[in-house]
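Annotated sample (chain length 192).
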Amino acid sequence: MEGQELQEGKERVRVHLIDPLERRGLERRRGVRLEDHQAFLTSLEARLAYMQPDKLIALAEVIERHATGKLKTNWPTEVSIMNWARLMQVPPASESRLVRTYMQSGAGLAARDGGYLVELFGYLKKWGAPPNSYSMSEIRKEADHNRGKLAAIRRAVSAGRATASEIQWQQGYLSTEARCLDIINAKGKVDA
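Output written by the structure step:
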């Protein structure tokens, strides 16, 4: 998310989450300096910019319910808010720092070259952590299975006997692969 899209997303967060909560009395935690609180709100705007208005409104309700402090009028921690947000609307891969940086690293390039890029992407999205050696072997097994499935679907398509669900699976897989390659190829653009 960049430029105008990011600005619009930040504005959504301000309008549907931050402003309504502040109007209802949510305030900075005791002992937190004003500039630190402003940095916290600015960070929320950027990190939640991917969310849709209805999800932000629902998140505001959760934050209000989990307000902290003696009077329950203080903002919860950013970690808590981000965890609740992910349960309501999973950030796109391009918004996940872990997925983006891992896919753009040597491990992502190895996955691309080794034919298990989509499976690595799925693992990172599901577990939110880099895979260990056991997980990598499972990722490679899944990739081998999916290569066989893709080949079988291609044969079925060329013979005119592929089912709609097979074609849909193939399109989803290839779309995810293209998305992964876009993340890898965006490295130079992000770093520039």
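Annotation: DSSP finds ten helices and no strands in the chain.
Annotation: The chain has a mean pLDDT of 90.
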